[in-house]
Amino acid sequence: MAANVERPAEAMYGSLLLFVSAGLALLVGIASLAEVGEWALLDVFIGILLILSGYIVYQVRHLTAGTVMALVVGLVVTILYVVTETIGVWIVFEGIIPIIAGILGFVARGKSRRMQEMPTDLLGVIKLHERIKVSEIASRFKTTELEIELSVIKLQERGEPIGFDKETREVFYKKQE
Question: How many Å apart are CA 43 and CA 8, to the nearest integer?
Fold first, then answer.
């Protein structure tokens, strides 16, 4: 993905969940090192993996890797807690929250991909119709009018010959002379 991709809100929420989960895992792991011993290192390791995953999800560049890492860690920890029958509040923080964050990461991935592809697809629709209402384009792309307007601005910044009539709320293609 390009470095200048706008960060979807789902990526920010997912990374926040991962950072909270990682912080709690690290806290529990470090606090219980003296009592539990080597098993506490597992919490520390999980915390480090979740911090790394949260950072990757927040950066959006390698969203798939961060999302898959969050899902795998969450599933492995959840299965481990279920198999060892030590189900408690920590299964939520170390298992279920990373799974939710991973799902949010996949939603953010789809959203950012759609945001990248929309200006190109939008240009094709505008060329085909020459003049079309923003509301009609939004319903075709199953998105909001605001996202269409932002895509039009991106196309104009790239130098594409399109315009926007504020009174009629129409986008039009300026024919080259």
Answer: 29
Give the helix ranges, DSSP H, for the chain: 9-31, 33-36, 38-59, 63-83, 89-91, 97-129, 134-141, 145-157
Which one, of 172, 175, 174, lies nearest residue 137 by Cα? Answer: 172
Cβ–Cβ under 8 Å, residues 78 and 98: no
Residue 144 has pLDDT above 70, yes or no: yes
Residue 49 confidence (pLDDT): 86
Q: Are 77 and 98 in contact (CB under 8 A)?
A: yes
Distance separating alpha carbons of residues 121 and 124, to the nearest angstrom: 5
Q: Which two tokens stand for residue 163?
A: 């315009």
Q: What is the pLDDT of residue 6?
A: 62
Percentage of residues of the chain with pLDDT beyond 90: 0
DSSP state of 132: E
Q: Angle CA(78)–CA(24)–CA(11) in degrees, nearest 5?
A: 75
